[in-house]
């Protein structure tokens, strides 16, 4: 049953009818006194007819539901359409009933125009009154500078105008294009472009009109452009905040009644380090995954969880989530049940080091595609328990790969790390050993039949478990200090969504024999994600302090603690003997690390695993050093890096 119309709609309907009655004598006056009909009785009959003529088209165009205070172009267009149809209906009714035939042929047009005038003027007056602010409110509001594309800036200004007592007063706008400078949006001047932010702030400071806040109205303002803006704002001591998403602002702009106050939020470090979106082969990803049985190991982790999300969105026939952590597995399973309820899935508690369990599981689910993300990844933790790292990262990968291949799996994608290059930690060396085994299997498969084993290597992902960004956030919440191991420490960073998108892209390229696939794959080549330029961790710490509205070394201390065992100052994406080569696919590079025979690596892995289970640490690490000769272990103290002080 449809809900009853609220009283305000009936009131609007009555007001529009009264305005329609007012429009009739105005139209008659414009038509000329000689064209008026004789006798007042006609007018008394025509007046209700004019009101009724507006009823049907007015309701169809939604005139009674309009909120006069927020009338815009869309409402005025609807009003014009309703007025034109109402004037035509009134004219036809007069002729049909034989009440009057106007002498002026332009009378229907004049009547329509007067209807538009009478209906539109009160709405425009309401709109103008809504935009007016008391003088004391304007003085209390914080002056702001708005940055973004003109469309998003317009939405922000509209949302701000709908606040009864706005907290912000717009001083000017920084647009994205030079040709927009000097123009106005809703009366507010465009003072320059994003690149001219520092010059604009200098001018405003000289004039004594420095804004209290810079507001980012466009989500596209990110990466290097955002960093330059933040630097300019820092020099003037002006905080930077981000407006709600354009979709939220658009929704707010259509709300009836007083809009909620705009909720500005701080800029996140992920936005600052964000890079332009790389075009991906979404159709190829869908062909790879849709209708297939997919297994994701380490599904409760940062990378594994995002893999599970993106795979689920592509419609697999069955998605199996594997992790040894009960709570993280429960969380990702619950999330997917809410976001993708139609996707068949199974959550499995298992340890990838349990060979018998993995073989039974593979026989049961028979995956066609495996994403292997399970690993021990925290360098100092693995240094404390190196045998656990070897069993999980190296031997566990071998178990997953062999079990999947035994049941006819077509493709396995192995997630590796930049720490596998010239490793100084057990964690990095164990991942390099896993790379070698996967390379050997893939080389065999490309020479004949078997499971493709695609290796994808990349650096740190922002916000991942145990990474520096969540650590800095926790330290900031406690008031500091922020701990950095070394002033020259550098790392590569990428958002988790971007990294996983490129992992799927690599899977599409590596799983097929397409002509544009890198020829190096046939020789054991592996994919390496283009991580851009490395970031100094101390600069990252300073930026996060500024984003929180604080001053580094004044409000929050940065403390250097020294390198931990196994850590390097500079991570590398390529070994000196495997120079990077670009591929036809943006964001993907290819490397050709040293390969070995799968049987030889397999036997060595078995011997190393036996030593680990027996607690023979020196024997296991010695075997690791023989298999990965570039492994320069820095046990108990940081390794000295070439070029470092």
Helices, strands, pairings?
Layout: H1 7-31, H2 40-60, H3 73-97, H4 107-131, H5 135-140, E1 142-147, H6 150-161, E2 168-175, E3 184-185, E4 188-193, H7 197-206, E5 213-216, H8 223-236, E6 240-242, H9 246-254, E7 265-266, H10 269-272, H11 282-289, E8 293-297, H12 302-312, E9 318-323, H13 326-339, E10 345-349, H14 355-365, E11 369-372, H15 379-384, H16 386-406, E12 411-417, H17 426-447, E13 452-458, E14 460-461, H18 468-477, E15 482-484, E16 490-491, E17 493-494, H19 496-511, E18 526-529, E19 535-536, H20 537-547, E20 558-560, E21 581-582, E22 588-591, H21 598-613, H22 617-627
Parallel strand pairs: 1-2, 1-5, 2-4, 5-6, 8-9, 8-11, 9-10, 11-12, 12-13, 13-18, 14-17, 15-20
Antiparallel strand pairs: 3-4, 6-7, 16-19, 18-22, 21-22
Helix pairs in contact: 1-2, 1-4, 2-3, 3-4, 6-9, 7-8, 11-19, 12-19, 14-16, 16-17, 16-21, 17-22, 18-20, 21-22
List key phrases describing it:
single chain, 645 residues, alpha/beta, Rossmann fold, 22 strands, 48% helix, 14% strand, disordered N terminus, disordered C terminus
Structure in words:
Helix 6 links the parallel strand 1 (142-147) and strand 2 (168-175). The strands form five sheets. The protein has a nine-stranded mixed β-sheet with strand order 10-9-8-11-12-13-18-22-21, sandwiched between helices. Strands 3-4-2-1-5-6-7 form a seven-stranded mixed β-sheet. A two-stranded parallel ribbon has the order 14-17. It has 22 helices and 22 strands. Helix 16 runs parallel beside helix 17. By secondary structure, the protein is α/β, with parallel strands linked by helices. The chain has three domains: 7-131, no CATH class; 135-267, Rossmann fold, CATH 3.40.50.720; 282-627, Rossmann fold. The longest helix has 25 residues, at 7-31.
